Every structure is written in structure tokens, then in C-alpha cells.
TrEMBL record, chain A:
Pfam families: SBP_bac_3. GO terms for biological process: amino acid transport. The keyword Transport applies. This is Amino acid ABC transporter substrate-bindnig protein. It comes from the Bacteria. Residues 35-266 form the Solute-binding protein family 3/N-terminal domain. Keywords: Signal, Transport. Belongs to the bacterial solute-binding protein 3 family. InterPro entries: Bact_solute-bind_prot3 (IPR051455), Solute-binding_3/MltF_N (IPR001638). Residues 1-24 form the signal peptide.
TrEMBL record, chain B:
It comes from the Bacteria. The chain crosses the membrane at residues 27-45, 97-117, 129-150, 183-204, 225-246, 266-285, 369-388. PANTHER family: AMINO-ACID ABC TRANSPORTER PERMEASE PROTEIN YHDX-RELATED, MEMBRANE COMPONENT OF AMINO ACID ABC TRANSPORTER. GO terms for biological process: amino acid transport. It is a multi-pass membrane protein. It holds the Pfam family BPD_transp_1. This is Amino acid ABC transporter permease. Residues 93-385 form the ABC transmembrane type-1 domain. Keywords: Amino-acid transport, Cell membrane, Membrane, Transmembrane, Transmembrane helix, Transport. It comes from Phyllobacterium phragmitis. NCBIfam families: HEQRo_perm_3TM.
Length: 343, 397
């Protein structure tokens, strides 16, 4: 009642409030803007890092390009916002980025109280430790790290897992916490800490950038589950669908053997599954129901390739990181990556 | 009263409409501005609440009771990862205060020495102080912090090759380790002796001043006070049978364990803030001393005061009146600059708050807490300095 009266008195102000509250969905905003604003890591080789010309590359970066290709048919219609671990959620909540694809762990508190939704898991990871084996010979397990100084990035699940792991194993440690990944890397390389902890994929990537990569080893223990995936603002299911199904399309394309090279000829395939996925079925409405064009999967695969191609190119055996597919293999090959059926 | 005036002014000029009455106009415009500001605040708050609800972000300060889950590298009070977010913020707040207070003390001492050094008769001292001031005053504080952290402290040797210093203390790139005193039985007596010494010195100083006012006789107050403050605890120390042992730092698998340790992040921030602010304080002090008329010194010599007495009793009290107000600003600057700690990972209020903000997503609340805390610290500092200033100000009769 009080509010109604006030709103009547302050008509203009109240109008402004309601006008802000009823804005369009993210997909329409992105289409109107003409490009996708994608939040990525500030510099994690293999996942998202700029080269000396400022061109971004990496696994997460290719996911951003895949979404851009699905919406615009053009993988280059994307702008990247490098974000630190601490900045990322505020940037997403405030609308500074449309989607956050920045090796971000899916947890229940982020999904609920942070006002986020996760659209899937594009990389199943786990947290590990890296040490300088040359200086600390004789250490070959994380359980021997009692008393060590451990470098970690602020505001990550890593920081929390680290505290839990050491207290569960009744070990002491000194956290050395920095906000930017570059600062953590520099501190570890300078010997400020004995061990570096983050997701194992990250450790392999960071090791490449150290002064003497061969001196450092990643310890065998994996102390946590880190399902990394794209995050969006909560309550926009149309936009969630676009991101989620782009991810599934990449997986299904790999499963069906559709690659960047053969996608055009695959359009004429007799296989009804492939025809449906690539939008060459007569009177198909799959793409338009999603708010995209019917050849969206063709655009995605033409733009960046399928999941396996993205993986191999950026972090797999064809890359300096040489990470094995492991649990990120397709379900048909004993892994966890499982694309929901496009039908 | 006001309404009567309006009525009167209305009567005096019957031909003019009340719309042209300056008083009514004044009230009208004030009312318009007031309503506009209230509307703006209402709109901002309403808009924020609506947007927060629309984005499904939890709000309120309930999150402060949640389990923090992360560790903090330096804490002045008991803190573990099982403590609450509120406790973590408190730890950060104490760390900010800690570095600010120690920094202010060091910067003041250093600043006064250098400020006086700039007026020295000795050419070398004068020029060294000049170079110091010009160098530190013209570099941004963040670079001074980086200089200490990356340039000085991180190039120190590794823990296993620590530099050995006298008294079993060690310096390495993990910080400065030194023996921690462990007090035994009856050690409390020493503290009591110290307090008694302080109180007695204060009483002696008061008595000596009264006697000097009455008879003109001078009593050696400083020497007596030193004897009381140092002698009494020393006596207690001997009487209680030397109840003090030391916990020496020892080399563990990774770090030096045992003893007490000062982390390089704290050292870098503390040294940088002290050295940076000292340059500004030095200039303030120099200005204050030069601001006292030379005639004052000459007059005190003419009265028979020795140079030391002239400086202490005549020049400095007058210089302080000029120095204190700008000095307060420097203290506030130092406290606020301490938030640059985030660049080198010292867990101050901003760094810890940032982690909490990221984990709970409650940016508005955390930023609000930051602002209130810094405002509070600054207002308290200003209050103290204003009190000190009033005490030092020229008493006019």
C-alpha cells in the first residue's frame, strides 16, 4: 500500500524502475548488439590466452566462438573480456558479459545464492599440486606437504578445497594468496611457495610458462571434483538453452563423426540423425525453436570443429599441453562427455 | 518567527504577489531540492532491489554468519577456515589497522628525522635527505610496494639457504624469522613494574614542572624517567629469577618452523607505506620549522636558553601548529593506501573482503562494509588529530 502511494507520487521514478526490471532476454540483446561478449581467463595457456597480436585462443575461447557461430553464423562475432577469478561473477551478474566461459567450477552455492546457472560441463577436472622436484626431491605425494607454503589464487574453489584438504589430513600450511593468476605464477616461480595448487589442467598449462618447466612435477593426488563449465545469469532459460545445446551439438558432432572438414558433405548424409542435427531435414524447426537458424550446428562445426577437434587443438596431444582425453572422452569411449539427443 | 517575517514583508509591499517573496521562494526551492534528492535515493534503492531480485542474488547481511572455508595467511586473532565470514572480515580489518598504525609510527619518526635533516648544517646530510624526498615523493605508492616486494624481498635466498643474522634470526624470501620470547612464571610482575615505572615518571614530571614554575630549579626529569621505566622492570626480571626463554626458528622440510615470523607481504607493504609517506611528512616538517620566525630562535638565545632547549621549548611547539593539520592528511593517506596490499597478497580488509564477495556474491554488502570501515577509521584518525591540534594550538587570552 505504502509502495503504491509512493509510486503514484513519484510516477516518473517508478516508471524507470519497472522499465529496468522488464528487459529483453540475453539472446535478443546479443542479436541486437551484433556480437557476443564472452568472459574468459586473463591468461591460462590452452584455455584462454591472447597472443602477441592480441588474438585470443584456447579451449574456452573456442567455446565462445562456437556460441557466436551458432547465433550469427560467424565465429568471429565475439569480444573477449579477460576476468580474474574474483571479478568474474560480478561481471556476469552486472551484465558486463553475456556468458562466462572461464574454467569455472559448477558448485551448488554458485548455482543458487550467486544467481547463476551452469549450462553444462565442458571439461571435467580435479585439483592437484605442483612442486619444484629439483628443489624438493623426495616429495612425491601431496600428503608430504605439511608445513609447506602453498600458492593459490583468491576467490576460487581451489582456495576452499586447499583449506579442507589440509585440515582433513591434519597438516599445517601457509596460504600465499594473490588475486591475479599472473601474480601467483610469478610468486611460485620466484620460490615464494613450495607448492602451487589449482585444477590439474591449469597446472599443466602454467608449467609451460615457468622458467624451467622440466624442474616441476604435478603430484598424483587429485583432491577435488572440478566440473568446469559455461555460466550464465539465472532465470533466462532461452539463453541457457542456446549455450547448453551448443555444447551438446559439439559432443554429438564428434560422436557422429562430423568434423570441420566434412560438415558440408555430411549435410547430404542419409543418416536421419545427422540430417536432423545439421538442419537438412525437410520442414525442420529445431533451430528456429531455439531462437537460431536451422543450420546453426553447421555454422558451429564449420567455425570451430567438434568437441574432439577443439580439445586436441588446444589442450590435447596436438598442443604443447598434451593432456589426455581421460574422463573427458565421449561416453562411447569410456569417458563422461555425453551429448543429449538432438531431436 | 519566520512566518511572522513573511507576513510582515507581505504587508510592507501590498502590490507584490507572495510569489516574489524571497523567503517563500527560498523555502520553495529548498523543498524542491529536498524532494528531488529523496526521489533520487528512492529510485536508486528501488532499482537496486528490483535488479537484485531479478537476478536472483541473495541480499542482506546474513551471509556474515556463514562458514568462511578459506585460510588467511596472517591473523592477529584466532582464525581457522571453520570461522565465519564476519570473523574473516574482522581479521582483515585488524591487519589493515596493524599495518596502518605501525606504518604511521615509522613514517612519523622517519619523516621528522629527514625533515630536520633537510635543514641540517651538514651539506651531505642535507643533500641525501633532499634526494630521498624527491625520489619517494615522485613515485606512485604501488611502485614503491612492488620495489620492496619484487625488488628487495623476493630476491632474498630460499628458506634452506637463509641469511643468518645475529641472535638466531634468519632472513629469506619467506620473510624474517626471529626467536620468539616465551615468558615463564611470574612474568606478569615485569609488566606491572613497567606500568608502575610509567606512572611514577608521569608523577615526577608533573612535580618537577610545578617546582620549576615555583622556584625556577630544574630537575633531571628525562634521566629519572628512563631509570624508572627501564630499571623497575629490570629489577622485577632479576627478582623473579629470569623467567624468559626463547623459541628459536629451526629449519623444517619446507620452511623455518618455530620462533616468530614476519611475512614478506607485510614487510613490503609496511616498508613501502612508511618510506613513501615519510617523504611527504619530511616536507611538512621542514615547512613547519621554516615557518617559525628566525627572531623566535634569536630571542630564546637572548633569554639564555641553550640551542637544544631553544628548539625543544620555543621552535618545535610553534612548528607543530603548522605541521599537525597537513600531518593528519598524510596519516589518512597512509591508511587508505594500505588497501594497495591486494597487489602483493597481504590479507587486509580489501583482500579478504574481495574473496568473501566472490564466494557469496554479495558485492553491495561487502563494498558497503569496506566504505563504512574506511570512513570510520579516517574519521577517528581525524578526530584524534583535531584533538591533538586543539591541544597544541596557540592559547589566546
Amino acid at each position: 500500500m505504502y509502495k503504491t502511494v509512493l509510486q503514484g507520487v513519484l510516477g516518473v521514478a517508478a516508471l524507470a524502475v519497472t522499465a529496468t526490471a522488464a528487459s529483453a532476454g540475453t539472446l535478443d540483446d546479443v542479436k541486437a548488439k551484433g556480437f557476443l561478449q564472452c568472459g574468459v581467463n586473463t591468461g591460462l595457456p590452452g584455455f584462454a590466452s591472447p597472443d602477441d597480436k592480441g588474438d585470443w585462443s584456447g579451449f574456452d575461447v573456442d567455446y565462445c566462438r562456437a556460441v557466436a557461430a551458432a547465433i550469427f553464423g560467424d565465429p568471429t562475432k565475439v569480444k573477449f573480456t579477460p576476468l580474474t577469478a574474483k571479478e568474474r561473477f560480478t561481471a556476469l551478474q552486472s551484465g558486463e558479459v553475456d556468458v562466462l566461459i572461464r574454467n569455472t567450477t559448477w558448485t551448488i552455492s554458485r548455482d543458487t545464492s550467486l544467481g547463476l546457472d551452469f549450462a553444462g560441463v565442458n571439461y571435467y577436472d580435479g585439483q592437484g599440486f605442483m612442486i619444484n622436484a629439483k628443489k624438493l626431491s623426495g616429495i612425491n605425494s601431496a600428503l608430504q606437504l605439511s608445513g609447506a607454503s602453498v600458492c593459490v589464487q583468491a576467490g576460487t574453489t581451489t582456495e576452499l578445497n586447499l583449506a579442507d584438504y589440509f585440515s582433513a589430513n591434519k597438516m599445517e600450511y601457509n596460504p600465499v594468496v594473490f588475486e591475479k593468476i599472473e601474480e601467483v605464477n610469478a610468486a611460485y616461480d620466484a620460490g615464494r611457495c613450495d607448492a602451487y595448487t589449482t585444477d590439474q589442467s591449469g597446472l599443466y598449462a602454467i608449467r609451460l610458462g615457468l622458467a624451467n618447466p622440466d624442474d616441476h612435477v604435478v603430484l598424483p593426488e587429485i583432491i577435488s571434483k572440478e566440473p568446469l563449465g559455461p555460466a550464465i545469469r539465472q532465470g533466462d532459460s532461452q539463453w541457457a538453452d542456446v549455450i547448453r545445446w551448443t555444447h551438446f551439438a559439439l559432443l554429438n558432432a564428434e560422436e557422429a563423426g562430423i568434423t570441420q572438414a566434412n560438415v558440408e558433405e555430411m549435410k547430404n548424409s542419409d543418416n536421419p540423425d545427422i540430417k536432423r542435427m545439421l538442419g537438412s531435414e525437410a520442414d525442420t524447426k529445431i533451430g528456429t525453436d531455439l531462437g537460431l537458424s536451422n543450420d546453426w550446428v553447421v555454422n558451429v562445426i564449420k567455425g570451430v570443429g567438434n568437441y574432439g577437434e577443439i580439445f586436441e587443438r588446444n589442450i590435447g596431444t596436438a598442443s604443447p599441453l598434451k593432456i589426455a582425453r581421460g574422463i573427458n572422452a565421449l561416453w562411447t569411449k569410456g569417458g563422461l562427455q555425453y551429448g543429449m539427443p538432438i531431436r | 518567527m519566520a512566518s511572522q517575517d513573511i507576513a510582515e514583508s507581505g504587508r510592507e509591499s501590498p502590490g507584490v504577489s507572495f510569489l516574489y517573496d524571497p523567503k517563500i521562494r527560498g523555502i520553495f526551492y529548498q523543498a524542491v531540492v529536498f524532494i528531488a534528492i529523496i526521489t533520487l535515493i528512492y529510485w536508486i534503492v528501488g532499482n537496486t532491489v528490483a535488479n537484485l531480485q531479478r537476478s536472483n542474488i541473495a541480499s542482506g547481511f546474513g551471509f556474515l554468519k556463514g562458514r568462511a572455508g578459506f585460510d588467511v595467511s596472517q591473523s592477529l586473532v584466532q582464525y581457522t577456515s571453520d570461522s565465519t565470514y564476519g570473523r574473516a572480515l574482522y581479521v582483515g580489518f585488524l591487519n589493515t589497522l596493524y599495518v596502518a598504525i605501525i606504518g604511521i609510527v615509522t613514517a612519523s619518526i622517519l619523516g621528522f628525522l629527514i625533515g630536520i635533516g633537510r635543514l641540517s648544517q651538514n651539506w651531505l646530510i642535507r643533500k641525501i635527505c633532499l634526494v630521498y624526498v624527491e625520489v619517494f615523493r615522485n613515485i606512485p605508492p604501488l611502485l614503491v610496494i612492488f620495489f620492496w616486494y619484487f625488488g628487495v624481498l623476493s630476491v632474498l635466498p630460499q628458506a634452506r639457504e637463509s641469511l643468518s643474522l645475529p641472535f638466531s634470526s634468519y632472513l629469506n624470501n619467506r620473510g624474517f624469522s626471529f626467536p620468539a620470547p616465551v615468558w615463564g612464571h611470574n612474568a606478569g610482575l615485569i609488566g606491572i613494574a613497567l606500568i608502575v615505572g610509567l606512572v611514577l615518571s608521569f608523577l615526577v614530571a608533573r612535580w618537577a614542572r610545578k617546582r620549576q614554575m615555583a622556584t625556577g630549579q630544574i630537575f633531571p626529569v628525562y634521566r629519572t624517567a628512563a631509570a624508572l621505566i627501564l630499571g623497575l622492570p629490570l629489577l622485577a626480571f632479576v627478582v623473579t629469577g629470569f623467567p624468559l626463554s626463547f623459541d628459536l626458528p629451526k629449519l623444517g622440510t619446507f620452511n623455518l618452523s618455530g620462533g616468530a615470523q614476519v611475512k614478506p607481504e607485510f614487510l613490503a607493504l609496511y616498508l613501502a607505506l612508511s618510506f613513501y609517506t615519510a617523504a611527504f611528512i619530511a616536507e611538512t616538517v621542514r615547512a613547519g620549522i621554516l615557518g617559525v620566525n628566525k627572531g623566535q630562535t634569536e630571542a630564546s638565545y637572548a633569554l639564555g636558553l641553550r640551542p637544544g632547549q631553544a628548539t625543544r621549548l620555543v621552535v618545535i611547539p610553534q612548528a607543530l601548529r603548522i605541521i599537525i593539520p597537513p600531518l593528519s592528511s598524510q596519516y589518512l593517506n597512509l591508511t587508505k593506501n594500505s588497501s594497495l596490499a591486494i597487489a602483493i597478497g597481504y590479507p587486509d580488509l580489501v583482500a579478504v573482503g574481495g574473496t568473501i564477495l566472490n564466494q557469496t556474491g554479495q558485492s553491495i554488502e561487502v563494498v558497503g562494509i569496506w566504505m563504512v570501515v574506511y570512513l570510520g577509521i579516517s574519521l577517528i584518525t581525524s578526530g584524534l588529530m583535531n584533538w591533538f591540534n586543539a591541544k597544541m594550538a596557540l592559547v589566546e587570552r
